[in-house]
Design a protein that fits this description.
Radius of gyration: 22 Å
Structural class: mainly alpha
Helix content: over 70%
Oligomer: single chain
Largest sheet: none
Low-confidence stretches: 384-388, 413-418
Number of helices: 18
Length: 418
């Protein structure tokens, strides 16, 4: 039934995708809404629960695939030459977002400091998938797209050690396993670099050669091998995925080009499947269990935590006001937060259920808001000639009303007077 539902919703998403690319309609919201309506507590079509194995597996695979393909968009030379802004977002923005979110969780919801810091770490990562119209729009300044892409790719893995440490503190553990955490991070980076390099060198040797039909599968094979080795060695899968993508982009431009479109389609399928399953976990009863303070917290986590953190991080950075505002707003919560929320739910700590409810409602609001406003904000960076004709007409009418002037003759569609 899950497969049948996914196939039907996927077909519908394909049929409306052109419209979604030009309007606030979002395919991400479509899958989330479908999961909600067909979930066990609404219509009962899908029998999916938080402890179902498919939930955690899909979320983890989706996040791995997204990070792997994100990493392929930038090589090491790109990172080294344009690290200043992502460095600010990661070095200052990530911990500040964590702290502001934790303060809201402690004083608004009433969570203890350990649990508040834990939910801050869960909601600190960002996901540009739900702002794809902004990240994928060539008319948006390259440095802004680079900032959002690199930040989201790295902060998922960087947040994981904080999640594990604060989870151990919330559980009352005396051993924070810092050595194991350092080993996981190091192994993730090593696996993410060595496996792609070895695979690319093998293909370049005189003993092997990939046929044109099989070349797109080279990237898939590398990604699967990184995932498998990471699972076996208990490495940080998300840092391994992102570093593997960067390594392929750096040392294998031909492999990168062959895998690019194929890989993005795979990541998109995993993402949409995970959204459908996640939506099935949400129900009217689930939302009704959240107190008004929980809703206030979710609003603050979206409208205050990241904007305040990024505003402080980009002081005297030279980033334009419009670009800074876009970066402050587009910090959507995605698969990393889903995965980490499920990790807490499975831990069995006292506040696990409350934390998962708060994380879930924040993610739902974030998906609805960010995936519905990415097209609108992206248009602000378009050339005036590319802005729809109705926008110029409305803008002129507003100016005429404010100035108390009579209506001026209408200009040709797509043009404006300023």
């Amino acid at each position: 039934m899950l497969l049948l539902t996914f196939a039907c919703v996927l077909l519908l998403a394909v049929l409306v995708s052109a419209l979604a690319g030009r309007t606030i309609l979002s395919t991400a919201v479509l899958f989330l809404a479908a999961g909600f309506l067909l979930g066990p507590d609404v219509t009962g079509v899908l029998d999916v629960h938080a402890d179902s194995g498919i939930v955690g597996t899909l979320a983890e695979l989706a996040l791995f695939a997204v990070l792997f393909t994100d990493g392929m968009r930038v090589g090491w030379a790109d990172l080294r030459s344009a690290w200043r802004l992502p460095g600010r977002a990661l070095g200052w923005g990530l911990p500040l977002t964590l702290l502001v979110t934790a303060v809201a969780a402690h004083y608004v919801v009433g969570l203890g400091w350990a649990e508040a810091l834990l939910i801050g770490a869960i909601l600190a990562p960002t996901d540009p998938v739900f702002a794809s119209a902004l990240v994928g729009n060539d008319k948006v300044p390259a440095r802004l797209r680079h900032l959002l892409n690199v930040e989201s790719g790295v902060n998922d893995g960087l947040a994981l050690p904080f999640v594990i440490v604060f989870l151990a503190v919330a559980a009352g553990s005396d051993d924070l396993h810092l050595g194991e955490l350092a080993l996981e991070v190091s192994l993730g980076l090593v696996i993410g670099v060595l496996i792609p390099v070895a695979a690319i060198l093998l293909e370049r040797s005189r003993f092997f050669s990939a046929s044109p039909a099989y070349e797109p599968l080279n990237g898939l094979a590398i990604g699967l091998l990184v995932l498998a080795v990471g699972q076996v060695t208990h490495a940080n899968l998300f840092l391994a995925a992102f570093s593997a993508g960067i390594t392929v982009a750096t040392f294998g431009p031909r492999q990168r080009a062959a895998f690019e479109h194929f890989g993005e389609n795979i990541a998109e399928l995993f993402k949409l499947a995970a959204l459908l399953v996640f939506g099935a976990l949400i129900s009217p009863a689930f939302l009704g269990e959240i107190s008004w303070t929980g809703w206030v917290f979710a609003v603050l986590a979206i409208f205050a935590a990241r904007p305040v953190a990024l505003w402080l991080s980009f002081l005297r950075s030279g980033l334009g006001l419009r670009e800074q505002a876009a970066a402050m707003w587009f910090g959507p919560k995605g698969f990393a937060s889903v995965v980490y929320g499920l990790l807490v739910l499975e831990s069995g700590i006292g506040a696990a259920d409350e934390i998962f409810h708060l994380v879930a409602v924040t993610i739902v609001l974030s998906i609805l808001l960010h995936s519905s406003t990415d097209v609108v904000v992206a248009r602000a960076f378009d050339e005036q000639a590319d802005v729809p004709g109705w926008y110029g007409v409305v803008r002129r009418r507003v100016r005429a009303v404010r100035g108390g002037a009579d209506s001026a003759p209408a200009a040709p569609p797509g043009q404006d007077d300023a």
